[in-house]
Write a structure and sequence with these properties.
- This protein has 190 residues and is α/β, with parallel strands linked by helices.
- Strand 4, helix 7 and strand 5 form a beta-alpha-beta unit.
Length: 190
């Protein structure tokens, strides 16, 4: 019998509930993170739901024709910007474990006139893509939500092509957390 000391299912459920309750009625996060040129490329539906931590796309080397995987696509801001860079011959796979977020990304992609965005409902610890099938993996404040971060990163490495790139903005902790914080679901979603 396997014991899940981190209570992964409970943590995932708590994270799902926390992100389902985001109302998406403000563009302040997007305005803080992205340039005016980038903001002009995004539909209001994506801007109003932005929840990222930083603008990691400033460092992503997405070339025309690239296949990009966006872990935790949320409202679609990074997905849309990546799809515009990848161009019509490229492809962006927007992965999220919440159908509500995938619907937001699909709507934003339609509003942006993009046909190179696909959505994929899955968990980042079990990415249902072939080995070596992606050129760039991007993620903005999502890997920290995983109770199995090493597994999520191993999945990123598995799906990346040789020479592929991982471009992530995320939270890290330098000091040890007390067990009551480390294992508390609210700490994962907050």
């Amino acid at each position: 019998m396997s014991r899940d000391l981190m209570r992964s299912d409970e943590i995932r459920a708590f994270v799902r509930d926390a992100y389902r309750s985001v109302n998406g009625s403000t563009t302040r996060v997007a305005e803080r993170l992205y340039s005016s040129e980038e903001l002009a490329l995004l539909p209001e539906s994506a801007l109003s739901g932005a929840l990222g931590l930083a603008n990691h796309l400033r460092y992503a080397r997405i070339k025309p024709g690239a296949t990009v995987l966006d872990l935790g696509c949320g409202s679609g801001v990074d997905t849309i910007l990546a799809a515009q860079r990848a161009g019509p011959t490229g492809r962006v796979i927007a992965l999220d474990f919440l159908p509500e977020m995938l619907e937001r990304t699909e709507q934003a992609a339609r509003e942006a006139g993009l046909e190179n965005v696909e959505t994929l409902e899955a968990e980042m610890e079990e990415i249902p893509l072939a080995d070596a099938s992606v050129d760039v993996v991007i993620s903005n404040g999502v890997i920290n939500l995983s109770p199995r971060k090493a597994r999520a990163l191993a999945e990123c490495a598995r799906v990346l092509r040789p020479g592929g790139e991982l471009c992530v903005s995320d939270l890290t902790v330098e000091d040890e957390l007390p067990p009551e914080i480390l294992t508390h679901p609210a700490a994962w979603a907050g």
